[in-house]
Amino acid sequence: MKSLKELEEIKQRTLDSVNLRKDRTGGTRIVVGMATCGIAAGARPVLLAFLEEVKKRNLGDVTVSQTGCIGVCRLEPMVEVYRPGEEKVTYVKMTPEKVKRIVAEHIVNGQIVTEYTIGAAE
Amino acid sequence: MEDISLHLLDLAQNSIAAEATLVEIYIKEITEKGCMYLRIHDNGKGMDQQQLDKISDPFYTTRTSRKVGLGVPLFKASAEATGGYMRINSAQNKGTILEALFYTNHIDCLPLGKPEESLAALIFLNSEVDFVYCHEVNSRQFRFDTREVRKILGEVSITEPEVIDWIKKHIKSGLDELYGGA
Hints:
The complex is a heterodimer.
Chain A: H1 2-16, E1 29-33, H2 36-41, H3 43-57, E2 63-67, E3 79-82, E4 89-91, H4 96-108, H5 118-121
Parallel strand pairs in A: 1-2
Antiparallel strand pairs in A: 1-3, 3-4
Helix pairs in contact in A: 3-4
Chain B: H1 4-17, E1 22-30, E2 35-42, H2 49-54, H3 71-80, E3 85-91, E4 95-103, H4 115-125, E5 130-137, E6 140-145, H5 146-153, H6 161-179
Parallel strand pairs in B: 1-5
Antiparallel strand pairs in B: 1-2, 2-4, 3-4, 5-6
């Protein structure tokens, strides 16, 4: 089966690059709200868009994880970004398009996208 | 929920909250009868009768952070809106089986959506849990098992972004084959 061979190739590539890849702890954490409210509002494409960006840009020190309901369901999908040494930033009403900008400007370059934050929405 | 695959993502998260290590998702579609049967089977800690009695009550949840739990009631409503049903069987310390039937020709039936994206999300977010996804359309079958993927990957993590991307595409092409041709 062609597709299992592809998986073997991915494995080999990953093993080859394993030395380049630093331990992911200590880097930026991206946390997506994946409770019922988040999923219903569109958290799945947002999560997958973050993964896609991490893959494309080879962001080795970025971790993506999930949390439950953050408590402001009407602003879902919500995402929290923790950069080391900085305060948590909460982004609301997320979309895959917003993900691209947040990764480029905030995750990579450290510039918070203020207009997408909970502060701007409230 | 916009589609059934989002319900599956949400419901499988309940299995994980119940400390399941294996979650099996089974879908069977019979086109000529216009029905779709879904089953989520986990080996989590299960529920007692008291919890089972309340499972479809939106004001029941095991969560301590809030007082409503809408996942199961919403899914039940989606199935019943088509004339179908949802039921749950559970045994403490053995696991839970959730089954539902959707009548797909009913005007209120949700589309299936993108199971490959739900699986990709579930596998990425719950790296220590194994998932089986088995989907039958009439006499055709597609089966995916993370245990087999792990066997091939060896020491490489299943959550590597490239692997997750492969999983998504692999399931998608399996589904395309299920639905394709005569």
